Amino acid sequence: MNSAHFTSSTGNHAVVVTRVSDTQWHALEDDLVVGRGDASRRPDGRLFISIDAWHGAVFDRIADAMLTDLPTPLYTVADEADQDSTSAWERAGFTAVRREWGYRVPTDPKVTGLGSVRPPSGVTIVPAGEAEEGPLRALDSIVRDEVEAAVGWQTMPAEVLPRPAGTSVLDPSKYTVARHLDRYVGLVRVAPLTRQPRIGLIAVRADRHRRGIARALLAHALGSLHRCGTAAAWAEVNESNAAATALFEGIGARRAGSTVEFVRR
Question: Which residues form a coiled coil (predicted)?
Fold first, then answer.
């Protein structure tokens, strides 16, 4: 394919940035790879880029090449605590548009206070792996439409963005569900990662809000993790989501980091 070349120097040798594929760029110094750039289109259609480079000058050259080759808008995410990274993206013309707080969520009911929490009247909890796939996907569709109408589904973490088929449910076995009579009304998704399980999504139908369903779902999911010997889970919450922030902080979750999403339009 055609390659774009940008040359600079880190002090000893010239650095050449070359587009090696549709989605990858390499920075070479004296025939050694000293930096890489990658581009990927997420399921919601947005184009995200990432750059891995040891030197700020190399980062800037890779960014120049990628910005020349790719259409805008372009998006990226960075650890807010990494000042070098956030400053580099700002130098490249990117602007912060949203922040996600990372929470370490305890599982011990003595800490969360969820040991005595029960589902509201008429609601039962369907454990992970036991939900019927058809009704679960129908609930996912309803929740997605409600989020889109309110704040936009693009505000959700990347792992729960809808796929081209229009669903974010990839593995039904990871979902615990709240059922009211014969209808699913809420869900929580927990990915059983080795180091720390991840709460990827917790959602309740809009017409069932403020009834304690989300707390009951969390009580069940976290209680199950605790009984299996897991001390804590991980969750990410958009800083603008006051309800989710209150829910997690109300059960003893503690902020343990934050990521910032940047865009260049």
Answer: none
Looking at residue 194, its pLDDT comes to 72
Is residue 85 predicted with pLDDT exceeding 80? yes
Prediction pTM value: 0.79
Domain at 6-100: CATH code: 3.40.630.30
Summarize pLDDT for 2-19 with one digit per residue, the tens. 444 444 555 556 889 999
Of the candidates 112, 213, 129, 230, the one whose C-alpha atom is nearest the C-alpha of residue 176 is 129
Lowest mean pLDDT segment, chosen from 41-50, 74-83, 97-106, 160-169 = 160-169
CATH number of 101-260: 3.40.630.30
